[in-house]
Amino acid sequence: MELSFDFHSPVEPLKFNLFEKYNLTVHIKRDDMIHPFISGNKWRKLKYTLLDAKKENKTHLVTFGGAWSNHLLATAAAAAKFGFTSTAYVRGESVENQNLNLCKLFGMELKFVSRENYRNKENIFNKYHRQDSTTYFINEGGASVHALKGCVEIIDELPFAYDHIFTACGTGTTLAGLAIGVKNNRLHTRLNGVPVLANGAFLYEDINRLDNTIKDVMLHTDYHFGGYAKTKPALLTFIKHFVSKTGILIEPVYTGKMLFCLFDLIEKKYFPPNSSILVLHTGGMTGILGKLDSFGFNH
Ligand SMILES: *Cc1c(COP(=O)(O)O)cnc(C)c1O
Questions:
Q1: Which of 52, 87, 165, 254 would suit a FRET pair with 241, their CA atoms being 20 to 30 Å apart?
Q2: Which residue in 191, 197, 198 sits closest to 215, CA to CA?
Q3: pLDDT by residue (tens digit) across 75-105?
Q4: Prediction pTM value
Protein backbone atom coordinates (compact mmCIF):
# COMPACT_ATOMS: atom_id res chain seq x y z
CA MET A 1 0.00 0.00 0.00
CA GLU A 2 1.16 3.53 -0.62
CA LEU A 3 0.07 6.95 0.49
CA SER A 4 0.77 8.54 -2.90
CA PHE A 5 3.09 11.06 -1.30
CA ASP A 6 6.82 10.55 -1.42
CA PHE A 7 9.16 13.47 -1.14
CA HIS A 8 12.90 13.17 -0.56
CA SER A 9 13.84 16.37 1.20
CA PRO A 10 16.89 18.17 -0.22
CA VAL A 11 20.25 18.54 1.49
CA GLU A 12 21.77 22.04 1.26
CA PRO A 13 25.14 23.44 2.31
CA LEU A 14 25.28 26.04 5.08
CA LYS A 15 27.90 28.77 4.75
CA PHE A 16 29.16 30.64 7.79
CA ASN A 17 32.59 32.14 8.45
CA LEU A 18 32.66 30.14 11.67
CA PHE A 19 32.56 26.85 9.73
CA GLU A 20 35.37 28.01 7.45
CA LYS A 21 37.47 29.13 10.40
CA TYR A 22 37.41 25.62 11.85
CA ASN A 23 37.49 23.81 8.49
CA LEU A 24 34.10 22.19 8.84
CA THR A 25 31.49 21.40 6.24
CA VAL A 26 27.91 21.70 7.43
CA HIS A 27 24.81 20.64 5.53
CA ILE A 28 21.14 20.85 6.42
CA LYS A 29 18.52 18.28 5.46
CA ARG A 30 15.36 20.22 4.75
CA ASP A 31 12.65 18.00 6.20
CA ASP A 32 10.79 21.27 6.77
CA MET A 33 10.21 21.27 3.00
CA ILE A 34 8.29 17.98 3.04
CA HIS A 35 4.99 19.78 3.59
CA PRO A 36 4.04 23.12 5.19
CA PHE A 37 1.86 21.51 7.86
CA ILE A 38 2.61 17.76 7.80
CA SER A 39 5.92 18.99 8.91
CA GLY A 40 9.37 17.48 9.07
CA ASN A 41 9.74 14.65 11.47
CA LYS A 42 6.00 14.61 12.14
CA TRP A 43 5.52 13.28 8.60
CA ARG A 44 8.31 10.76 9.17
CA LYS A 45 6.47 9.58 12.27
CA LEU A 46 3.03 9.49 10.65
CA LYS A 47 3.89 7.72 7.39
CA TYR A 48 3.91 4.10 8.60
CA THR A 49 1.34 4.88 11.26
CA LEU A 50 -1.15 5.92 8.57
CA LEU A 51 -0.26 2.92 6.42
CA ASP A 52 -0.99 0.69 9.42
CA ALA A 53 -4.30 2.46 9.98
CA LYS A 54 -5.25 1.93 6.31
CA LYS A 55 -4.27 -1.74 6.51
CA GLU A 56 -6.52 -2.15 9.55
CA ASN A 57 -9.38 -0.42 7.71
CA LYS A 58 -9.49 2.43 10.21
CA THR A 59 -11.04 5.70 9.07
CA HIS A 60 -10.87 7.91 12.17
CA LEU A 61 -7.60 9.01 13.79
CA VAL A 62 -7.63 9.88 17.50
CA THR A 63 -4.61 11.59 18.98
CA PHE A 64 -3.29 13.81 21.79
CA GLY A 65 -1.20 16.92 22.33
CA GLY A 66 -0.73 20.38 23.77
CA ALA A 67 -2.34 23.46 22.26
CA TRP A 68 0.79 24.32 20.24
CA SER A 69 1.60 20.74 19.26
CA ASN A 70 3.14 20.34 15.79
CA HIS A 71 1.96 16.75 15.91
CA LEU A 72 -1.71 17.76 16.19
CA LEU A 73 -1.48 20.01 13.16
CA ALA A 74 0.43 17.41 11.16
CA THR A 75 -2.16 14.78 12.04
CA ALA A 76 -5.04 17.09 11.13
CA ALA A 77 -3.51 17.93 7.73
CA ALA A 78 -2.48 14.33 7.00
CA ALA A 79 -5.92 13.03 7.98
CA ALA A 80 -7.54 15.43 5.51
CA LYS A 81 -5.03 14.59 2.79
CA PHE A 82 -5.29 10.82 3.11
CA GLY A 83 -9.02 10.45 3.70
CA PHE A 84 -9.35 10.06 7.46
CA THR A 85 -11.43 11.98 9.94
CA SER A 86 -9.58 13.11 13.07
CA THR A 87 -10.16 13.95 16.70
CA ALA A 88 -7.61 15.41 19.10
CA TYR A 89 -7.64 15.55 22.88
CA VAL A 90 -5.92 18.79 23.79
CA ARG A 91 -4.18 19.11 27.16
CA GLY A 92 -5.55 21.73 29.56
CA GLU A 93 -8.38 24.22 29.65
CA SER A 94 -10.09 25.36 26.47
CA VAL A 95 -8.03 27.90 24.51
CA GLU A 96 -7.90 29.33 21.02
CA ASN A 97 -4.74 29.88 19.01
CA GLN A 98 -3.53 29.82 15.38
CA ASN A 99 -2.30 26.25 15.65
CA LEU A 100 -5.64 24.92 16.87
CA ASN A 101 -7.55 27.03 14.35
CA LEU A 102 -5.48 25.48 11.56
CA CYS A 103 -6.27 22.03 12.99
CA LYS A 104 -9.97 22.90 12.85
CA LEU A 105 -9.62 24.18 9.30
CA PHE A 106 -8.29 20.75 8.33
CA GLY A 107 -11.44 19.27 9.86
CA MET A 108 -10.05 18.03 13.15
CA GLU A 109 -12.45 17.82 16.07
CA LEU A 110 -10.90 19.20 19.27
CA LYS A 111 -11.74 18.14 22.81
CA PHE A 112 -10.04 19.75 25.78
CA VAL A 113 -9.21 17.58 28.77
CA SER A 114 -7.86 18.54 32.18
CA ARG A 115 -4.14 17.99 32.74
CA GLU A 116 -5.01 15.24 35.19
CA ASN A 117 -7.26 13.25 32.85
CA TYR A 118 -4.88 13.88 29.97
CA ARG A 119 -2.22 11.79 31.66
CA ASN A 120 -4.10 8.57 30.98
CA LYS A 121 -4.51 8.59 27.22
CA GLU A 122 -5.44 4.91 26.96
CA ASN A 123 -8.23 5.61 29.42
CA ILE A 124 -9.63 8.44 27.31
CA PHE A 125 -9.44 6.31 24.18
CA ASN A 126 -11.11 3.32 25.82
CA LYS A 127 -13.86 5.42 27.32
CA TYR A 128 -14.89 7.28 24.16
CA HIS A 129 -13.65 5.27 21.20
CA ARG A 130 -13.04 1.60 22.02
CA GLN A 131 -16.54 0.54 20.84
CA ASP A 132 -16.00 2.09 17.44
CA SER A 133 -13.80 -0.30 15.44
CA THR A 134 -13.01 2.38 12.84
CA THR A 135 -10.96 4.50 15.26
CA TYR A 136 -7.17 4.36 15.42
CA PHE A 137 -5.11 5.46 18.42
CA ILE A 138 -2.04 7.62 17.81
CA ASN A 139 -0.02 8.52 20.88
CA GLU A 140 1.10 12.03 21.84
CA GLY A 141 3.83 13.28 19.51
CA GLY A 142 3.10 10.34 17.20
CA ALA A 143 5.48 8.06 19.13
CA SER A 144 5.27 4.37 18.11
CA VAL A 145 7.21 1.56 16.42
CA HIS A 146 5.78 2.83 13.12
CA ALA A 147 7.17 6.28 13.88
CA LEU A 148 10.62 4.81 14.43
CA LYS A 149 10.50 3.05 11.07
CA GLY A 150 9.71 6.30 9.28
CA CYS A 151 12.65 8.08 10.91
CA VAL A 152 15.08 5.33 9.82
CA GLU A 153 14.36 6.34 6.22
CA ILE A 154 15.99 9.75 6.76
CA ILE A 155 19.38 7.99 6.81
CA ASP A 156 18.52 5.93 3.70
CA GLU A 157 18.00 9.18 1.77
CA LEU A 158 21.42 10.69 2.56
CA PRO A 159 23.91 11.13 -0.29
CA PHE A 160 26.95 10.93 1.93
CA ALA A 161 28.21 9.37 5.20
CA TYR A 162 28.58 12.37 7.50
CA ASP A 163 30.83 12.33 10.55
CA HIS A 164 28.09 13.88 12.70
CA ILE A 165 24.33 14.27 12.51
CA PHE A 166 22.41 16.65 14.78
CA THR A 167 18.72 16.68 15.63
CA ALA A 168 16.51 18.35 18.22
CA CYS A 169 14.91 15.90 20.69
CA GLY A 170 11.50 15.88 22.33
CA THR A 171 10.67 12.21 22.90
CA GLY A 172 13.91 11.03 21.27
CA THR A 173 12.03 8.96 18.66
CA THR A 174 13.62 10.79 15.75
CA LEU A 175 17.12 10.36 17.19
CA ALA A 176 16.46 6.66 17.86
CA GLY A 177 15.27 6.18 14.28
CA LEU A 178 18.41 7.89 12.96
CA ALA A 179 20.54 5.64 15.17
CA ILE A 180 18.86 2.53 13.77
CA GLY A 181 19.40 3.85 10.24
CA VAL A 182 23.10 4.45 10.95
CA LYS A 183 23.44 0.93 12.35
CA ASN A 184 21.55 -0.70 9.44
CA ASN A 185 23.73 1.10 6.92
CA ARG A 186 26.92 0.31 8.90
CA LEU A 187 27.91 3.97 9.01
CA HIS A 188 30.36 5.49 11.47
CA THR A 189 28.27 8.64 11.82
CA ARG A 190 28.05 10.00 15.36
CA LEU A 191 24.54 10.97 16.38
CA ASN A 192 23.97 14.09 18.43
CA GLY A 193 20.66 14.90 20.08
CA VAL A 194 19.79 18.26 21.61
CA PRO A 195 17.00 17.79 24.18
CA VAL A 196 14.65 20.78 24.29
CA LEU A 197 13.45 19.81 27.76
CA ALA A 198 15.40 20.39 30.96
CA ASN A 199 17.31 17.44 32.46
CA GLY A 200 17.30 15.74 29.07
CA ALA A 201 19.64 12.90 30.12
CA PHE A 202 16.54 10.79 30.83
CA LEU A 203 16.36 10.38 27.06
CA TYR A 204 19.31 7.94 27.13
CA GLU A 205 16.98 5.47 28.85
CA ASP A 206 13.95 6.31 26.71
CA ILE A 207 15.97 5.79 23.54
CA ASN A 208 17.27 2.50 24.84
CA ARG A 209 13.70 1.42 25.56
CA LEU A 210 12.76 2.15 21.95
CA ASP A 211 15.66 -0.01 20.73
CA ASN A 212 18.06 -1.60 23.18
CA THR A 213 20.80 -2.06 20.58
CA ILE A 214 21.31 1.71 20.29
CA LYS A 215 24.57 2.67 21.99
CA ASP A 216 26.42 5.41 20.30
CA VAL A 217 24.30 8.54 20.68
CA MET A 218 25.40 11.73 22.40
CA LEU A 219 22.91 14.02 24.13
CA HIS A 220 23.90 17.68 24.58
CA THR A 221 21.72 18.48 27.57
CA ASP A 222 22.77 22.09 28.26
CA TYR A 223 20.85 23.79 25.45
CA HIS A 224 17.24 23.69 26.70
CA PHE A 225 17.21 27.41 27.67
CA GLY A 226 15.13 26.78 30.77
CA GLY A 227 12.92 23.97 29.49
CA TYR A 228 10.29 23.13 26.91
CA ALA A 229 9.14 26.20 24.92
CA LYS A 230 11.24 28.42 27.21
CA THR A 231 13.53 30.90 25.57
CA LYS A 232 16.24 33.46 26.35
CA PRO A 233 17.49 36.61 24.56
CA ALA A 234 20.68 34.85 23.40
CA LEU A 235 18.61 32.20 21.63
CA LEU A 236 16.38 34.77 19.92
CA THR A 237 19.40 36.82 18.82
CA PHE A 238 20.98 33.68 17.37
CA ILE A 239 17.79 32.78 15.49
CA LYS A 240 17.55 36.26 13.95
CA HIS A 241 21.17 35.99 12.82
CA PHE A 242 20.74 32.49 11.37
CA VAL A 243 17.48 33.20 9.54
CA SER A 244 18.68 36.51 8.07
CA LYS A 245 21.92 34.93 6.83
CA THR A 246 20.44 31.74 5.31
CA GLY A 247 16.83 32.39 4.35
CA ILE A 248 15.99 29.22 6.25
CA LEU A 249 13.37 29.73 8.92
CA ILE A 250 13.99 28.11 12.30
CA GLU A 251 12.06 28.54 15.55
CA PRO A 252 12.88 28.76 19.27
CA VAL A 253 11.25 25.52 20.47
CA TYR A 254 13.26 22.89 18.58
CA THR A 255 15.46 23.80 15.61
CA GLY A 256 16.75 27.06 17.12
CA LYS A 257 18.09 25.26 20.18
CA MET A 258 19.67 22.51 18.08
CA LEU A 259 21.50 24.96 15.81
CA PHE A 260 22.56 27.15 18.74
CA CYS A 261 24.12 24.04 20.24
CA LEU A 262 26.00 23.24 17.02
CA PHE A 263 27.44 26.76 16.73
CA ASP A 264 28.42 26.76 20.40
CA LEU A 265 30.17 23.38 20.14
CA ILE A 266 32.08 24.58 17.09
CA GLU A 267 33.29 27.62 19.02
CA LYS A 268 34.39 25.29 21.81
CA LYS A 269 36.46 23.29 19.28
CA TYR A 270 34.36 20.16 19.75
CA PHE A 271 34.92 18.94 16.18
CA PRO A 272 38.28 18.04 14.64
CA PRO A 273 39.12 19.95 11.41
CA ASN A 274 37.62 18.53 8.19
CA SER A 275 34.64 17.02 10.00
CA SER A 276 31.42 16.82 7.98
CA ILE A 277 28.24 17.63 9.84
CA LEU A 278 24.59 17.26 8.88
CA VAL A 279 21.82 19.00 10.80
CA LEU A 280 18.26 17.83 10.42
CA HIS A 281 15.66 20.57 10.00
CA THR A 282 12.74 18.81 11.69
CA GLY A 283 10.25 21.46 10.58
CA GLY A 284 7.58 22.69 12.94
CA MET A 285 7.54 26.19 11.54
CA THR A 286 4.01 27.00 12.67
CA GLY A 287 5.39 26.88 16.22
CA ILE A 288 6.91 30.27 15.57
CA LEU A 289 3.45 31.86 15.34
CA GLY A 290 3.10 31.61 19.11
CA LYS A 291 6.60 32.99 19.68
CA LEU A 292 6.87 35.95 17.31
CA ASP A 293 6.00 38.43 20.06
CA SER A 294 8.99 37.34 22.12
CA PHE A 295 11.38 38.65 19.43
CA GLY A 296 10.33 42.17 20.42
CA PHE A 297 10.16 43.57 16.89
CA ASN A 298 7.68 46.23 18.05
CA HIS A 299 10.12 47.95 20.36
C1 LIG B 1 8.21 17.06 17.58
C2 LIG B 1 9.44 17.76 17.11
C3 LIG B 1 10.73 17.33 17.48
C4 LIG B 1 10.97 16.22 18.48
O5 LIG B 1 10.95 14.95 17.90
P6 LIG B 1 11.09 13.64 18.78
O7 LIG B 1 11.03 12.53 17.83
O8 LIG B 1 9.90 13.63 19.73
O9 LIG B 1 12.36 13.71 19.55
C10 LIG B 1 11.82 18.01 16.95
N11 LIG B 1 11.65 19.06 16.11
C12 LIG B 1 10.43 19.50 15.75
C13 LIG B 1 10.32 20.68 14.87
C14 LIG B 1 9.28 18.86 16.23
O15 LIG B 1 8.07 19.32 15.87
A1: 165
A2: 191
A3: 999 999 999 999 999 999 999 999 999 999 9
A4: 0.96
Distance from the CA of 21 to the center of ligand 1, in angstroms? 31
Please work out whether the CB of residue 69 comes within 6 Å of at least one atom of ligand 1: no
Residue 150 in contact with ligand 1 by CB distance below 6 A: no
Ligand 1 centroid from CA 131, angstroms: 32
Mean pLDDT, rounded, for 159-176: 96
User: What is the distance in A from the centroid of ligand 1 to the CA of 184?
Assistant: 22
**How far, in Å, from the CA of 161 to the mean position of ligand 1?**
23
Local confidence band at 1 (pLDDT 50, 70, 90 cut-offs): low
pLDDT tens digits for range 213-227: 998 899 999 999 999
Q: What is the pLDDT of residue 107?
A: 98
**pLDDT attached to residue 4:** 66
CA of 172, closest atom in ligand 1 = 9
In this structure, the strands spanning 25-30 and 11-14 are antiparallel
Q: Are 75 and 81 in contact (CB under 8 A)?
A: no
Q: Which of 34, 43, 68, 70 gets mutated to test ligand 1 (max ligand atoms within 8 A of its CB)?
A: 70
Q: Is the CB of 168 under 6 A from ligand 1?
A: yes
pLDDT band at 158 (very low <50, low <70, confident <90, very high): very high
The pLDDT tens digits of the residues spanning 52-73 come to 999 999 999 999 999 999 999 9
Residue nearest to atom 4 of ligand 1 (CA): 170
